[in-house]
Write a structure and sequence with these properties.
Length: 92
């Protein structure tokens, strides 16, 4: 993952990132993101979000909200944003 993220940042201007994981959190990935992005959201069940959720976020993955970047970062419409969703399967 470290090598892959290095390539992503080498070839793209990324201003912000959203990291979410329903499994084991990888602090190393968060540190890489913080070293390259002005805004990093570490999305978990306790992260405030401007969306009404009608179920227990600690029981159903908060990673589902990672893809809704616009809802989480409404003022960042003109920025590029990397979303890392480490749910049951991992996606970049």
């Amino acid at each position: 993952m470290k090598l892959y993220l290095g390539r992503v940042f080498a070839h793209n201007q990324i201003d912000s990132a959203i990291y979410s994981s329903v499994g084991v959190r990888c602090e190393h990935i968060l540190e890489i993101l913080k070293g390259h992005c002005a805004l990093v959201i570490d999305l978990d069940a306790s992260t405030p979000i401007p969306i009404e959720v009608l179920y227990d976020r600690s029981r159903l993955g908060s990673d589902r909200f990672g893809g809704s970047r616009r809802g989480l970062c409404p003022n960042s419409c003109e920025r590029s944003c990397l979303v890392i969703d480490a749910g049951t399967a991992s996606y970049l």
